[in-house]
From TrEMBL, chain B:
The chain crosses the membrane at residues 12-32, 62-83, 95-115, 135-157, 187-210, 216-235, 242-274. GO terms for molecular function: transmembrane transporter activity. It comes from the Bacteria. It is found in: Cell membrane. This is Branched-chain amino acid ABC transporter permease. It comes from Phycicoccus endophyticus. GO terms for biological process: amino acid transport. Keywords: Amino-acid transport, Cell membrane, Membrane, Transmembrane, Transmembrane helix, Transport. It holds the Pfam family BPD_transp_2. Belongs to the binding-protein-dependent transport system permease family. LivHM subfamily. It is a multi-pass membrane protein. The lineage of its organism: Bacteria, Bacillati, Actinomycetota, Actinomycetes, Micrococcales. GO terms for cellular component: plasma membrane. Its main location: membrane.
Length: 247, 285
């Protein structure tokens, strides 16, 4: 019996003839924060897109609570409890902030939807005053809060966040990273893809390093926190001798 | 002066019908990213359905329009489920499939009804606004079209389902990622779009004569409105409906009906050059 929430086994995925990730495996447990780091073009975003089914697999498998889900369409995976915040936020730009949140809980009844919206507004009080505004005209930070809030509206068990710091002011990124441990307290596992390594290492339980589409390290984030040279080494594609903690 | 007022009034009444003519096309374009080359066929199917329901079953023409909307909507659903959904990644195949569907519809209608032009005569009398005569049937057609358009807009802008449909226009992947079955929304959009095209055909059949090959002429007007209003912009489409109705009516009255299509193409060309995202500058490029 697999006691992990999400497990990815030796997956390969890409775009047309281009393979973006190959033979990548990872596991995410309940209430865990996993960071996925690596240089540009390492395949970090593709990994998240393959987990959610936005990009099809050409090899390997994805299981959710022990059940294979790689044949399910994206929306069915989301209904099982996997939510994702895409790079660039990708809000419904012509709809209001409130409508964006409401659609995040599309299948919920009115009372559940309202409760979820209250929780999101508690997490991001700044959204309270801009609920009526059109999402497309918000600042980057506001959009990121809406994007995370929309993903949380369905009360997912696992939240995948792609590059939350991209294009945002540092104080907003700090605020967003401060919410991640709160999400874990609420019972949500988080997988965060990030290029700002220093920031992500502060909050993660485990970390995976991708290089040119392959996993070169998976284990405790502690190692990189204490040994910056080790991080530089894996960033250059060198596998570490002891892949401690690999799932 | 009376002629000018008459032109304006006729344009307003015609704009309501034109709006319905383009609404279905706009919804399908927005949600499915499909340029529906079968739009004219669906319009003419609506015209003949209303004609049959009225002349053979003695149904009131406007009740017949409601029934024909369902009939053409179901045909749209069958077309979508039958092959459109399999052509998501093949725009060229999809285009030829829709053109093929139009040819089949046109041929079947020709075989069933011959080449004679037909109309649905609706005589509800004439009102006078001062000295300007207004056909009551045209007022009823306008009210009917406005109600249909208003109801569609109400669903699109006030219900969660409608907002989900609009969200697909913004970002289909994000819709999938929040757990909404976008394939069902696509089916719904094509069914409703087809139904609206059918309704437009039924209403317009009370205005003008039509034959099995008339669909293209109506489709050209619908395409022009969608381009002028901005691709996928429904409010822009409403304004464009009035502009096109005004242009076509004015050209017919002041110049010649032979110049109607020329004027329409010039207007489309002008909008594409000066305001490619439509009158409200909100459409897709």
């Amino acid at each position: 019996m697999d006691d992990h929430l999400l497990r990815v086994r030796s997956i390969r995925a890409g775009y047309g003839d281009l393979t973006a990730i190959d033979d990548v495996s990872m596991a995410v447990g309940e209430r865990e924060i996993v960071g996925v780091i690596g240089p540009n073009g390492a395949g970090k975003s593709t990994l998240l897109r393959a987990i959610t089914g936005v990009v099809p697999l050409t090899a390997g498998s994805v299981t959710w609570c022990g059940e294979p889900i790689d044949r399910l369409p994206t929306d069915a995976r989301a209904r099982r409890g996997i939510a994702m915040v895409q790079e660039g936020r990708r809000l419904f730009a012509s709809l209001s902030v409130r409508d964006n949140l409401v659609l995040g809980a599309y299948h919920a009844d009115r009372a559940t939807r309202q409760a979820a919206e209250d929780d999101v507004l508690e997490l991001f009080p700044a959204l309270r005053d801009i609920r009526g505004r059109t999402a497309g005209v918000l600042s980057g930070g506001e959009q990121q809060m809406v994007a995370i809030g929309r993903a949380l509206m369905s009360r997912p068990r696992c939240l995948l966040i792609d590059e939350p710091s991209l294009g945002l002011a540092p104080f907003i990124v700090d605020e967003i990273y401060r919410t991640l441990p709160t999400l874990v307290e609420l019972g949500v596992a988080v997988v965060v893809v990030e290029q700002e390594v220093g920031r992500v290492l502060k909050v993660v339980d485990r970390v995976m390093v991708l290089h040119e589409g392959r996993s070169v390290y998976e284990g405790s984030g502690e190692r990189f926190r204490t040994d910056p040279d080790a991080l530089a080494s894996v960033y250059l594609g060198h596998e570490l001798a002891d892949q401690g903690g690999a799932a | 002066m009376n002629t000018l007022l008459n032109v304006l009034l006729s344009s307003v009444l015609l704009a309501g019908v034109y709006f319905i003519l383009s609404l279905g096309l706009n919804i399908i374009l927005g949600v499915l990213d499909i340029v529906n080359f079968a739009h004219g066929a669906l319009i003419i199917l609506g015209a003949y359905s209303t004609y049959v329901l009225h002349t053979h079953l003695s149904l009131d023409p406007f009740l017949a329009v409601l029934a024909d909307m369902v009939v053409v909507g179901v045909i749209g659903a069958v077309v979508y489920l039958g092959y459109l959904r399999f052509t998501v990644n093949s725009p060229l195949v999809r285009m030829f499939a829709l053109i093929g569907f139009s040819s089949v519809v046109s041929a079947l209608l020709l075989m069933a009804f011959g080449s004679d032009y037909r109309t649905i005569p609706v005589d509800l009398g004439t009102w006078y606004l001062g000295s300007i005569p207004v056909r009551v049937s045209q007022v009823v057609a306008f009210v009917f079209a406005a109600a249909l358009g208003g109801a569609t807009m109400l669903v699109l802008y006030r219900t969660t389902l409608g907002k989900a449909v609009r969200a697909v226009t913004d970002d289909r992947t994000s819709v999938q990622l929040v757990g909404i079955n976008d394939r069902r929304l696509s089916l719904l959009a094509f069914t409703v779009g087809a139904g609206l095209a059918g309704a437009a055909g039924g209403i317009i059949a009370t205005y003008v004569t039509f034959a099995s090959d008339s669909g293209l002429a109506f489709a050209i007007i619908a395409f022009a409105i969608v381009i002028i209003g901005g691709l996928g912009d429904i409010w822009g489409g409403a304004i464009a409906s009035f502009l096109v109705a005004l242009l076509l009516t004015a050209v017919t009255v002041y110049l010649s009906s032979a110049l109607v299509n020329t004027a329409l193409f010039l207007l489309v060309l002008m909008v594409l050059l000066l305001r490619p995202r439509g009158v409200l500058n909100r459409g897709r490029v």
